[in-house]
Amino acid sequence: MRFPRTCYDRGPDVRLLSAVAFIAVLVLTPDGAALRAQSQPALPARFDSYVKAHVKLTSDQHRQLLAGQPVTQLLETDPAKEVAIFGAVWVNAPVARYLSAVKDIESFEKGGNFLVTKRISSPPRLEDFGQLSLPPDDVADLRACKVGECEVKLGETALTHIQKETDWAKPNAAADVDRSMRRLAHEYVTAYLDHIRLEEAEVLPLAERLLTEGDWAELDAAFMQNRDPLTYRDGQDEFRPLFKRILMTLPAPIGLGPAMEALNASHPTGR
Is the residue at 144 inside a domain? Predict the structure, then answer.
């Protein structure tokens, strides 16, 4: 069995990127049992292999995870384009209970830093995005910003459409921008789900049949070493420790420090 692979699809019109991508990994056992005291406690084999090969936790972090404490680790990415953070905590609950909670996503993700959580219909509907709106400063920025410099990350086609089709002199220009953003979000999610369905129905089954273990290992190595030659600059890695320190100190939603402290306070055993 291989660790699941996910392809990143930028989409033709809109490129929705966050400054920080937080990968939350909840480690559960089928019956809800925590890691029991034993002479040599261990993570599930596939997960342990992934952690060692790609996450590269320190020995102290590995021990914390085995002890039921939450851990975070800055992943190796191109800092000129994105930042990815791995997070894991052992959850002392049956898998079925966790899945049931996640399926009710609107209740599972509410309050605190969650402004709005909406379950997307199948297929997605435009009204699913009815609560999507931009802050006034983002709307003002969109009026004249350039691709790659806007606060809201959009592709050239989408940005040009909003700037040219919006009557910025109207008192309700912000409402028009919100309607455009809802349409773009609907188109993006629809295209993304169509892409995923194509992968799952045709591409991945074909790859499973034709590729050897050596092929998969070569693909994994190439993926983990990938860097965009147009944006990467030598020497940027020297800033990673400083960025990690800042990220783990700033309050949510900008950083993760107090958020992790709150998690530890509410779950002192991490379970």
Answer: no
